[in-house]
Design brief:
The chain is of the alpha/beta class. It folds into 2 domains: 6-134 and 172-262, Spore Coat Polysaccharide Biosynthesis Protein SpsA, Chain A; 264-292, no CATH class. It has helices at 39-47, 62-69, 92-96, 98-101, 120-125, 182-187, 199-208, 229-246, 253-259, 265-274, 279-290; strands spanning 6-10, 31-32, 35-36, 52-57, 78-83, 106-110, 113-116, 132-138, 146-150, 156-161, 170-178, 212-217, 222-225. It has a 7-stranded mixed beta sheet with strand order 5-4-1-6-11-8-12. Strands 2-3 form a two-stranded antiparallel ribbon. A two-stranded antiparallel sheet has the order 7-13. A hairpin with a 2-residue loop joins strand 2 and strand 3 (35-36). Helix 10 runs antiparallel to helix 11 (279-290). The chain starts with 5 loop residues before the first strand and ends with a helix. It catalyses: dTTP + alpha-D-glucose 1-phosphate + H(+) = dTDP-alpha-D-glucose + diphosphate.
Length: 293
């Protein structure tokens, strides 16, 4: 089933925290074990049933993204590329993507976030198309993130960006399901002291009118960001451990497209040939042999 939602992957930014790694290549194109990092957020949107996706990149990185991803037709999806002239905050994505969205509800995922967990597709598909839905994840260092402040009955009171003293251990992940009013709301966001259009300010406009839901991801989920050299390595090792232990791929757009019925057996076979003698190519060939959609 395809969603009426459209998808946004925010893959801009300067990547300075990962210098010198990112001096010549976008952070979101770095390898995360055996695939480019961008595959992981892309497959999150595909698992949500979304087939129209905009990829927001810096002007000088866009050609590389097009080379890695193509137009999406190999996966039965449609990719649109949008330039982010300067990184002015996450809420800016909704202004840049306004024409692409054309009033549709959307799911935005950050290009350096990795999500994994049984039940993730169902959780995303359950997000209503009206209002906003974000996901809270229990972390040990909440002061690094936007943090959810709950009242006694579990209702969300506020979301606080990088609080010195965190009101809870639940960080807001880089996955946002917002309705068609998001670009209009983003226009009303004033730049923060650091000069950015903060996503937290945009979410507050939903919160104030009682239309923001925070779904908490339980212990069976993994949410990894890759903002430091150590967390990049940790995420790669996480993927490697899962894949080697289970013999199943994490973040394979080819497998997901085939499993959703968006591409045929013949299409998958062509993709498997493209990857030749790699483990990834062998895995795709194995899917065709097992024939388990």
């Amino acid at each position: 089933m395809s969603s009426t939602r459209k998808g946004i992957i925010l893959a801009g930014g300067s990547g300075t925290r990962l210098y010198p790694l990112t001096m010549g290549v976008s952070k979101q194109l770095l390898p995360l074990y055996d695939k480019p990092m961008i595959y992981y957020p892309l497959t999150v949107l595909m698992l949500a049933g979304i087939r129209e996706i905009a990829v927001i990149t810096t002007p000088h990185d866009q050609e590389q993204f097009k080379r890695v991803l193509g137009d999406g037709s190999q996966w039965g999806i449609s990719l649109t590329f949008i330039v982010q002239p300067s990184p002015d905050g996450l809420a800016q994505a909704y202004l840049l993507a306004e024409d692409f969205l054309a009033g549709a509800p959307s799911a935005m995922v950050l290009g350096d976030n990795v999500f994994f967990g049984h039940g993730l597709p169902e959780m995303m598909k359950a997000a209503p198309e009206q209002g906003g839905t974000v996901f809270g994840y229990h972390v040990s260092d909440p002061e690094r993130y936007g943090v959810v402040d709950f009242d006694k009955d579990g209702t969300v009171k506020a979301i606080i960006e990088k609080p010195p003293v965190a009101p809870s251990n639940y960080a807001v992940t880089g996955l946002y399901f917002l309705d068609g009013t998001a670009p209009e709301r983003a226009r009303a966001v004033q730049p923060s002291p650091r000069g950015e259009l903060e996503i937290v300010t945009l979410l507050e406009s939903y919160l104030h009118e009682g239309s923001l839901r925070v779904e908490t991801m339980g212990r069976g989920y993994a949410w990894l960001d890759t903002g430091t050299h150590a967390s990049l390595l940790d995420a790669g090792n996480f993927v490697r451990t899962l894949q080697e232990r289970q013999g199943l791929q994490v973040g394979s757009p080819d497998e997901i497209a085939w499993g959703q019925g968006w591409i045929s057996d013949e299409d998958l076979s062509e993709r498997a040939s493209l990857f030749g003698k790699t483990g990834y190519g062998a895995y795709l060939k194995g899917l065709l042999r097992s024939d388990k959609h």
